[in-house]
Inverse folding.
């Protein structure tokens, strides 16, 4: 009775053995390739940064609101400090990529530029969120739209602005947000686009209102 069972277990065990051996071999090769690429990247000499697209912070596009809100005031100070710094979105590159392209000596500077971009995105979102919470919607929209102009990659930033557009019935502007999102270099890109497109689907209450308007129009005719 045990013989048929053995004929099943033995091939399965053999398959697992070869599968693990192949997997381990691939992992070893990948690790070796990674370290070899790192070694090559660390030997690249300093290159000019002329092709980097820097974000020039335009403080005139950020409305100034007088308030005791600490988050808002802190955001203004942070943005003012960033306005004198170089900002670049390098999130699409790994450190190895940056060393290969611009040289290992430039990595600290490039890291600083990218960190400034991260701070910019977070600060603009915090400012827009707080202004919206204060019910200063127009100022919030100005800040959030400027964040899109600066190519923010924060999904929460996009969705907050989309919620405001939706509440105002500005679906054409949601479509514009989708176009901007399609240019993003982010792992959340597809998820963001999906959520934005869902806002273009009429809700039940909107459909009811449309039908009521049609019915009222027909009765008046």
């Amino acid at each position: 009775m045990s013989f048929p069972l053995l004929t099943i277990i033995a091939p399965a065990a053999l398959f697992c053995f070869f599968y693990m051996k192949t997997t381990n071999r691939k992992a070893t090769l990948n690790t070796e390739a990674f370290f070899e690429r790192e070694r090559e990247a660390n030997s690249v000499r300093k290159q000019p940064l002329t092709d980097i697209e820097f974000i020039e912070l335009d403080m005139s596009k950020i409305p100034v609101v007088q308030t005791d809100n600490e988050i808002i005031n802190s955001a203004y100070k942070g943005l003012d400090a960033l306005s004198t710094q170089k900002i670049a979105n390098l999130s699409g590159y790994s450190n190895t990529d940056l060393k290969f392209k611009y040289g290992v000596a430039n990595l600290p500077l490039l890291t600083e530029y990218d960190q400034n971009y991260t701070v910019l995105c977070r600060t603009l979102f915090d400012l827009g969120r707080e202004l919206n919470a204060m019910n200063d919607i127009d100022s919030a929209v100005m800040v959030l739209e400027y964040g899109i102009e600066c190519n923010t990659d924060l999904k929460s930033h996009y969705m907050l602005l989309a919620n405001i557009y939706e509440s105002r019935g500005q679906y054409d502007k949601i479509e514009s947000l989708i176009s901007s999102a399609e240019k993003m270099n982010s792992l959340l890109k597809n998820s963001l686009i999906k959520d934005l497109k869902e806002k273009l689907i009429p809700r039940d209450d909107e459909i009811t209102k449309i039908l009521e308007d049609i019915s009222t129009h027909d009765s008046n005719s």
Remarks:
- The chain has a mean pLDDT of 84.
- The two ends are 86 Å apart (CA to CA).
